[in-house]
Specification:
25% of the residues lie in helices and 18% in strands. It is an alpha+beta fold. The longest helix is centred in the N-terminal third of the chain and has 12 residues. The two termini are 21 Å apart.
Length: 157
């Protein structure tokens, strides 16, 4: 099994098969607009712009499961990301990342790379690095600066 077997809705409502990202290195991130870590969008965008021509993509998945820090609707989220951080990487519709109603992709991601003490995602901006074959290679804590992941990304490109 790999992440290529899943699909999710882009922020514009279009269903997107993750198999469309075959042969790309991915960084999948659960995001939020009103979090102390929200400025990580800037570094995520830098990574995307730096490596997109080499087969790298960031996939952002907004979630409102952590202290309601992503309260906006899809249009508000998209506008926020574009206006404040110039985000041009794919942003998906808001999802749940924990619990029985968690999106199947996040159920899979957490089963492949558990966190410290638990598989559960503890906060916004947890990051999962995916290789070109769709395998979950590494999980990063919310506090990990996206730029610090650069070397790991380069190894997979």
């Amino acid at each position: 099994m790999s992440i290529h077997e899943f699909s999710a809705r882009l922020i514009n409502g279009e269903e997107k098969a993750l198999s469309d990202y075959k042969d790309q290195v991915l960084l999948i991130v659960n995001t939020a607009s009103k979090c102390g870590l929200t400025p990580q969008y800037e570094e995520l965008q830098i990574l995307y712009e730096t490596y997109k021509d080499q087969g790298f993509t960031v996939l952002g998945f907004p979630s409102n499961q952590f202290m309601n820090q992503e309260p906006g609707d899809h249009n508000e989220i998209a506008a926020f990301c574009e206006r404040n951080y110039g985000v041009s990487f794919p942003i998906f519709e808001k999802v749940k990342v924990n619990g029985k109603e968690a999106h199947p992709l996040f159920q899979y991601l957490t089963s492949q790379q558990g966190g410290l003490f638990t598989e559960k995602i503890k906060w916004n901006f947890t990051k999962f690095l995916i290789d070109r074959s769709g395998n979950v290679v590494k999980r990063y804590a919310p506090s990990t600066s996206p730029i610090k992941i650069k070397d790991d990304i380069e190894e997979l490109l």
